[in-house]
Design a protein that fits this description.
Elements (H helix, E strand, L loop, with lengths): L1 H25 L2 E5 L4 H16 L3 E7 L11 E5 L8 H11 L6 H20 L1 H9 L2 E5 L5 H7 L4 E4 L42 H33 L4 H6 L3 E4 L15 E3 L16 H7 L4 E5 L8 H12 L4 E5 L2 H11 L6 E4 L3 E2 L2 E2 L7 H4 L6 H4 L10 E4 L3 E4 L4 H5 L4 E6 L3 H9 L4 E3 L6 H10 L3 E3 L7 H13 L1 H16 L4 H14 L14 H4 L2 H27 L4
Parallel strand pairs: 1-2, 1-4, 2-3, 4-5, 5-6, 6-7, 8-9, 8-15, 9-14, 15-16, 16-17
Antiparallel strand pairs: 10-13, 11-12, 13-14
Length: about 575
């Protein structure tokens, strides 16, 4: 009997020891909630992969309509959003570009309304709610405005990743940053007018425009964004959305001050550096290897990110402008759209060489597909779902003698090649930092949103040029390409930034993981990093200036009255 008791106690000790060893190794349960857009999804996935290496249990939740989710290396959980199509935000943006509808107030209403619908679906999905109840922290991005509601409902700390960089104007003050419009350009202030973003050193008229834009952005927030999201906020939280935004314990900025404008950040806002740039040590895949090899004058890469449907007149004008260059052009774009457009509007000079050997009955064999079931899905768009490594023989159109158009390209692999002379880009932050990291000059052609702000930084830093889409033609493109490839100012400035981006011995993903673990260790209590919330008039000391200014004026007036009375006193 004694022997049995000793044995039981020994087994209990062993279990306790094993538990004390295994439980810490399992790490915390982390929930990633990205905004439904490919680049935002990729940023959070990069952070999630680093956290996974540190033995955390990482799960990403994403709408079932987003096709690119199938390529994730992380565990994913879908939630269904009724009555929306595949890649909804991308589809809406492309439709507005294709029809030249613009991105004004109507776009903002459409964006926030759809966001409210997605947020409601997220809150009502049982599978997601069950995982959230077991999670320790939520990581989302600033574009997903409803994420703080989700985090507050489950009483979990939230870490925001800001894929646009800093957000002066409509959201910066809610994070505790009080931005001075005289110092920092207001986020997307120029996008409504399709103008290039403001420089860091603004003249009087630019500061006036920036000041008014700052006020207007807050008015639009209060009149459009908050009212549309108010029913969802009231249903799942006892606080206002502004309060929830202001209580976010940590904000990570995936940018670098080599490009971003300096500003006074509060301690809970951390600049971690760009997450997407990376080296590729493998050989450049075919057929891109042959194109680069045969390019006598070098190559120019053209990509507008996820956007593959511009207006036909813009597409044809860009194509003709590229054909006039002496360089070999690799353009990521919709090959079907270009082919149909040339058949309808083209001329003899738009001769096409077509290669579709890569697909058999619409099936594309991709090395990056995760499993056989994905490879057997003939309706899956490989250019979206299989983007980690190229397909064995991707389709392309060759237009004229020098323009190669692909549905997908190994962008970073091409950017790091020594024959790459220039990158023509929509100026999305991921693409922009990838070009700078690989020491490549950029020509920015912004299309919407923060891309105009990024283009303004490029021009202000003298690392590239920028032009509006409607201004791009054969003459302006040739002038810009010649200047960017021959002017030593651009070449040397880009080289300096490339060295700065490579200087850190700690990767941006590692910095992000460190600060997320810091929040976990503090149980989400990061209030000690935030100053007290004060209104603008106190921040600018207007109350003190007014009080003591009036006191000085009143004292001077009284002194004057006393002196005046003394001189007017009659002599005895």
């Amino acid at each position: 009997m004694v022997y049995k008791s000793k044995r039981v106690s020994t087994d209990v000790c062993r279990i306790l020891i094993l538990t004390s060893i295994v439980v810490p190794l399992l790490g915390d349960k982390i929930l990633l909630v990205p905004f439904p857009w490919p680049s935002h999804y990729k940023l959070l996935e990069t952070i999630g992969e680093e956290l996974k290496k540190r033995n955390h249990d990482v799960v990403m939740v994403i709408p079932s309509t987003e096709t690119y989710r199938n390529n994730s290396h992380l565990k994913t959980v879908d939630y269904k959003v009724p009555k929306i199509g595949n890649n909804t935000f991308v589809r809406i943006a492309e439709k507005r570009l294709e029809t030249a509808a613009g991105f004004g107030v109507n776009w903002l209403v459409e964006y926030v309304t759809l966001l409210e619908k997605i947020g409601r679906a997220l809150m009502e999905e049982n599978a997601v709610m069950k995982i959230a109840q077991e999670a320790d922290i939520i990581i989302s991005d600033t574009a997903f405005l409803v994420a703080p509601i989700f985090a507050d409902y489950h009483k979990l700390p939230l870490v925001f990743v800001s894929p646009f960089g800093h957000l002066p104007g409509c959201m910066a003050d809610t994070f505790g940053n009080i931005e001075n419009p005289a110092l920092v350009p207001t986020f997307v202030a120029t996008a409504l007018f399709e103008g290039i973003g403001l420089p860091q050193r603004m003249n009087f008229l630019q500061r006036s425009f920036n000041f008014m834009s700052n006020i207007i952005s807050k008015i639009l927030r209060d009149l459009i964004t908050l009212p549309i999201l108010r029913p969802l906020t009231k249903r799942y939280s006892s606080k206002t959305l502004l309060q929830l935004w202001s209580e976010v314990p940590l904000v990570l900025i995936p940018m670098d001050y080599s490009l971003e404008y300096p500003r006074p950040d509060l301690p809970h806002v951390k600049m971690i550096g760009p997450l997407s740039p990376k080296e590729n040590s493998s050989p450049l895949p075919d057929p891109f290897r042959n194109i680069v090899k045969e390019a006598q004058n070098g190559i120019i890469i053209v990509s507008f990110g996820i956007t593959n449907n511009l207006h036909s007149r813009d597409t044809l004008r860009i194509l003709e402008s590229l054909m006039a260059l002496k360089y070999s052009i690799v353009w990521k774009y919709n090959t079907t759209k270009v082919e149909n457009m040339i058949h309808e509007y083209g001329s003899k000079k738009h001769r096409i060489q077509k290669n579709k050997a890569f697909c058999e009955n619409g099936l594309q064999e991709c090395r990056s597909c995760n499993n056989d079931s994905q490879r057997s899905n003939r309706n899956m768009n490989c250019s979206i779902t299989c983007t980690l490594t190229p397909c064995k023989s991707p389709s392309f159109l060759k237009v004229g003698d020098n323009v190669y158009i692909y549905d997908w390209i190994p962008q970073q692999h091409l950017l790091q090649h020594k024959k790459t002379k220039l990158f023509v880009t929509h100026c999305g932050l991921n693409s922009l930092y990838e070009a700078l990291y690989h020491n490549t000059q950029v020509l920015c052609v912004p299309l919407f949103g923060e891309q105009f702000d990024s283009a303004g930084r490029v021009v202000s830093r003298n690392i590239g040029k920028a032009m509006r889409l409607k201004d791009l033609n054969t003459e302006t493109l040739q002038d810009a390409v010649y200047d960017l490839t021959h002017n030593r100012v651009y070449i040397e400035n880009v080289k300096k930034i490339a060295l700065r981006l490579r200087r850190s011995k700690v990767s941006p993903a590692e910095k992000a993981a460190y600060w997320i673990e810091y929040v976990l260790a503090e149980n989400g209590d990061m209030g000690f990093l935030k100053p007290p919330d004060i209104p603008y008039y106190q921040f600018l000391l207007l109350d003190i200036i007014l009080f003591w200014g009036m006191a000085i004026v009143l004292s001077a007036w009284l002194l004057f009255k006393i002196q005046h009375a003394r001189y007017k006193k009659p002599l005895m």
